[in-house]
Amino acid sequence: MTLTSDPKAKNPQELDWNNLGFNYMNLPYRYRAYWRDGEWRDAGLTEDANVTISEGSTSLHYGQEVFEGLKAYRCKDGSINLFRPDQNAKRLQKSCERLMMPQVPVDMFISALKQVVKANEDYVPPYGTGATLYLRPYLIGVGGNIGVHPAQEYIFSIFAMPVGSYFKGGLTPTNFVASEYDRAAHKGTGASKVGGNYAASLFPGKLAHDAGFSDCIYLDPIEHKKIEEVGSANFFGITKDGKFVTPKSPSILPSVTKYSLLYLAEKRFGMETEQGDIYIDQLDHFAEAGACGTAAVISPIGGFKYGDHFHVFYSETEVGPVTHKLYDELTGIQFGDRKAPTGWIEKV
Ligand SMILES: Cc1ncc(COP(=O)(O)O)c(C=O)c1O
């Protein structure tokens, strides 16, 4: 019996690009490389969507797994953009360092991304639909190795799937709730993109969804007084006097989107920016708030429930003007309609 028989994706012509959601699809090609005896070997594309590994693999038992997420964007002229893939490559290297895994060189990472996008090019959604090709690089420890030690062998792979918006609303505000749980400890693995962080977030995420919220927002794991991040995105707020503020903490994932917004807010819109503390009892300082990330893009936060309080930032139904402006600039750059800062766009 096999539990790994995902059907092949529909033909691209049969896909409804405007209603994709965020779902796995078994596209024709993915990239694989194997680490053995201190080097990456046998790198290239494969049609096999299944990964067969030893039952004694560290990735199965001890969570020795790291991953990334980024997108390919179809431009008006038909060309395809990758958005700051070097930043994902570097973050993957940091995650690998934290979990004692071999690093993937930046050039190899970017070349692998391009191979996957080109091989599945028909699945890069058309310009104007807002949909994109999501790329999921990951690295796992493999080989029989049941002691709690780093594996001797690793697989690095990248697969892809066309996606629409991650949160149902897209650019329509949705509501979030503060979690009573923590996703990561201050000196734990929160700043690394490791599978275990997400396993820990499944239950709090379910509680939030069951209660009718888009997702939960984690508070600082020490005192539960400050906002840390959303389950799958960073948090930002726009103060009533127009400052872009985002939490600074060792247990949140350094979001490529967040750093891009910090840059755009300051350099393109002349806004003051700050990475600092956002106390949940001082939310009145903010005129707008949002969740930002590759999958979330910018998802406005309408209301935020913490304890018995329910705070509405800008509106539960309308997107705030600064959030909208940042969204237009960011997505304009990603889809090639607005000028990108040097080095942000890598053409496939
Ligand atoms: C926990 C978490 N925070 C933040 C982000 C946003 O990061 P990025 O903007 O690099 O996608 C993600 C998504 O990758 C995430 O999983």
Structure in words:
- With 348 residues, the protein is an alpha+beta fold.
- It folds into two domains: 12-163, Aminotransferase class 4, branched-chain amino acid transferase, N-terminal domain (D-amino Acid Aminotransferase, Chain A, domain 1), CATH 3.30.470; 174-335, D-amino Acid Aminotransferase, subunit A, domain 2 (D-amino Acid Aminotransferase, Chain A, domain 2, Alpha-Beta Barrel).
- It has six helices and 17 strands.
- Strands 1, 2, 3, 4, 5, 6, 7 and 17 form an eight-stranded antiparallel sheet that branches.
- A hairpin with a 5-residue loop joins β4 and β5.
- It is globular.
- Pyridoxal-5'-phosphate binds next to β11 and α5.
- InterPro entries: Aminotrans_IV (IPR001544), Aminotrans_IV_CS (IPR018300), Aminotransferase-like (IPR036038), B_amino_transII (IPR005786), BCAT-like_C (IPR043132), BCAT-like_N (IPR043131), BCAT_family (IPR033939).
- Keywords: Amino-acid biosynthesis, Aminotransferase, Branched-chain amino acid biosynthesis, Pyridoxal phosphate, Transferase.
- Its EC number is 2.6.1.42.
What are the key terms here?
348 residues; alpha+beta; D-amino Acid Aminotransferase, Chain A, domain 1; D-amino Acid Aminotransferase, Chain A, domain 2; 2 domains; six-stranded mixed barrel; 6 helices; binds pyridoxal-5'-phosphate
Q: Give the overall shape, derived from the CA principal axes.
A: globular
Low-pLDDT ranges: none
Bound heterogens, unique = pyridoxal-5'-phosphate
CATH homologous superfamily title of the largest domain: D-amino Acid Aminotransferase, subunit A, domain 2
The CATH architecture of the largest domain comes to Alpha-Beta Barrel
Relative helix content: 10-25%
Task: Return the average pLDDT rounded to an integer.
Answer: 95
Number of strands: 17
- Structural class assignment: alpha+beta
Q: Using the coordinates shown, work out and report the CATH topology of the largest domain.
A: D-amino Acid Aminotransferase, Chain A, domain 2
Please, how many domains?
A: 2
